[in-house]
Amino acid sequence: MVDRLTVLCFAGTYALALIGDLARVVARGSARWYVTVVLTALGWIIHTVYLANLAAQGLAIPVTGLRNSLLVLAWILVAIDLYLVVRSIRRLAVGLFVLPLVLIVLALAAWSPKGGWSQSNAWLTFWGTVHGLLLLLGAVSTCVAFLAGLMYLWQADRLKSKRLPQPGFALPSLEQSERWNRGAITLAFPLLTAGMFIGLALIVATRQVGGATLAWTDPKVVSTVLMWILFAGLLHARYRPEWRGKRVMLLTALAFAFLAFAMVGVGLVLPTAHGAPSSPNANGRAV
Hints:
Order of helices and strands: HHHHHHHH
Low-confidence stretches: 277-287
Strand content: under 5%
Structural class: mainly alpha
Shape: globular
Radius of gyration: 20 Å
Distance between the termini: 31 Å
Mean pLDDT: 78
Helix content: over 70%
Number of helices: 8
């Protein structure tokens, strides 16, 4: 109960910060901006203390389960939001794009199982943590690319329609959004690649030690491989001149949706053995 109340505490603070960002339509003074930043920072501090407590209890980075990984993902996204908002001279409306995604991630965390996917063997636990951490960092980079793509599409539509920018809704230029998108995709691909291949290697390793493992046809394995193929195509398109601009941003949104399905949706929609608790057999091995 205390655990859920703590999550609800910083999630509610982020929701108040989002309301403060939306209030820029009627309140355009600097006081609203400061209140929004303070609320976001307060929620992030509570969030940080919560994750630090989890790490202290487990004596490890809390990414050994879907629920905790989603909490860390939300924490990193808020940190990026704070960095972009504070360093921006024009007080960009980045929070309008980041905070809704943060609240969605926290809602998914609330509905995800609390157990981890660590194995009894120490080396499997270590590489399982590395696998989860790499996929987490790749997911963060993908989220940044997706958010940059949304801001690009918003700006492009406004310019095409010749609409004047609304007061208080300053967004990055098309060139800046495109740079963020390109950099985030370039970073996400090697992280996801490394995480995926370590995961495949863990499947082989657990078979050899007689531990519980995934079938090669498991929806989690198949969707992850398909996700990697899509990201490889996205990275290729990212550097082709004829694919720059709106096409790449739409492809980025598709890649983000596929990543969300592969990492979260599979367990909610399709049956998978990934993350299922294992029990030791007579030899002390997981079965």
